[in-house]
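task queued by scheduler; priority normal; single chain, no ligands, no partner chains; default sampling; output format set to structure tokens
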Amino acid sequence: MTSIGILGGGRVGAGLAGALAAAGHQVVLGLRDPEKRPPALTGARVSFSDQRAAARTADVVINATPGDSALERLGGLRAELAGKILLDVSNATRDAADGLPGELCYPGDSLAEQLQAALPDTRVVKTLNTMLFMVMTAPGALATPPTAYLSGDDAPAKATVAALLGDLGWRPAWIEDLGDITTARATEAMILVVPHVLRRHGFEPFAVSLAR
């Protein structure tokens, strides 16, 4: 059992919280307003707190906050995140006119690299940012095996994250370790294909994956 703090109570954060709690982990969902609890988690074995407490008390922290403001938000939690694994699943984009991702906030760079630079005492691992949110916790539901990419400088931290992915239903063959944190530039750029797919097909589950 791992102690996991999840920052952000939207569809991504709530979905991961419910699935990881069901897998037997101790999960705290960190919310800006702990009184506004996601209805989807009613009855789930998840506790709630503010985001600072969730980061401070967990061994692994998942960033499920909006990517365009994550750097400022998590930079303010440097002391709480020191010594922790930070699993970053967000994409930092600016919206197009229709509200879908339009352009990257960090072209030629990545949010994951920015977070690692701002949090030198934290081990940042990027993953699960190349799919719609429902695939994160149900990868086996797709007709074609999906891919979860890993980027990070710390091998043991990536091994811990890979084990958590396994608890979410990700088979070892579906997990692709790309290398150090700079490889997150590639996976974060993959978000640019997503709005075009969504405009044509709606929110039908899919992932940007390797085919072998």
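post-processing summary
- The chain has one domain: 3-201.
- Residues 3-201 form a domain with the Rossmann fold fold (CATH 3.40.50.720).
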